[in-house]
Write a structure and sequence with these properties.
single chain, mainly alpha, 4% strand
Length: 285
């Protein structure tokens, strides 16, 4: 899982500026003499390495497969690096990657996006670029054989597909949210609440309790915030159309990557491959 909420231009899920400006000013004290000193220097190497090893051990314990653990960790880094590349390209860098044990990663930029369109591009860059992580696992399967490599490629496709769920704080909510907000901020809010509740329910019913708790906390945090949109350039009609199109193309690419990895295990049968995928995601018992 990834998140690029901080820092960015605030949206309808965030506290109103007047609610946080005064307390922030009291905490901050006099303004810094050198603004560059406030730049995020990133996660301490010891924390990054320790968090990665801890996350790897946790995944291995749950899956009992070092290939799956490697695929998820590698896929996570490639996914977050996609966000970083987009942030740097769009003037938000230098961006940093943070590892959050048991949950995933976080890409943080130094500056706010200039527009909601830039925010959409950054959000979709992670899942789109993250699919490249599946290439080595496909290559190892063709070179060495073994179903484990295919499952590694499939889980990378699933990782990026789940991140496209339009539920806060996943990438899909930041890609589709601004489009819905063009209709009305409350349309976005209602959609995110419904999708967030469904994703939490999915996490609970499939045994992904840590993820479900994290998403539930995020959803409750959003419920406590007001529905408003800040000043600044929102999506244009053209950009909204492109946002929906890019979102759908990315989602199809993620699903296709997962199915392509499962087809050899299903002896070429698409329905069987979809059944295997559904079983892994908890939709079939």
């Amino acid at each position: 899982m990834s998140d690029i909420d901080t820092p960015r231009r605030p949206g309808p899920w965030d506290p109103r500026p007047e609610d946080v400006a005064a307390p922030a000013a009291r905490r901050a004290g006099p303004p810094a003499a050198n603004p560059a000193a406030a730049l995020d220097k990133g996660q301490h190497p010891a924390l990054a390495i320790g968090g990665t090893l801890l996350f790897f051990a946790f995944i291995w314990f749950v899956t009992q497969s070092w290939v799956m653990a490697t695929a998820l960790i590698f896929g996570l880094f490639v996914h977050e690096y996609g966000h970083v590349l987009a942030m740097n390209r769009l003037g938000m860098g230098p961006a940093r990657i943070y590892i959050i044990p048991f949950l995933g990663g976080l890409a943080k930029g130094q500056r706010l996006p200039q527009s909601e369109w830039h925010g959409v591009l950054v959000s979709l860059a992670g899942p789109a670029f993250g699919l490249l992580a599946a290439i080595p696992f496909f290559a190892l399967y063709f070179a060495l054989g073994g179903a484990g490599w295919l499952l590694g490629a499939a889980v990378i496709g699933a990782l990026n597909l789940v991140n496209l769920a339009p539920a806060p704080p996943l990438d899909g909510s930041k890609a589709i949210g601004p489009v819905l907000a063009r209709i009305h901020p409350w349309v976005e809010r209602a959609a995110m609440i419904v999708m967030g509740a469904l994703v939490v329910y999915w996490g609970v019913t499939t045994g992904r309790f840590i993820l479900a708790i994290f998403l539930a906390i995020a959803l409750l945090g959003h419920l406590r915030r007001g529905a408003w949109r800040p000043e600044g350039r929102d999506l244009t009609v053209r950009e909204a159309g492109f946002s929906v199109g890019l979102y759908l193309v990315t989602a199809i690419a993620c699903a296709a990557t997962g199915l392509a990895a499962l087809l050899p295990l299903a002896e070429g049968s698409v329905p069987v491959a979809m059944q295997i995928a559904g079983g892994y995601l908890g939709f079939h018992r």
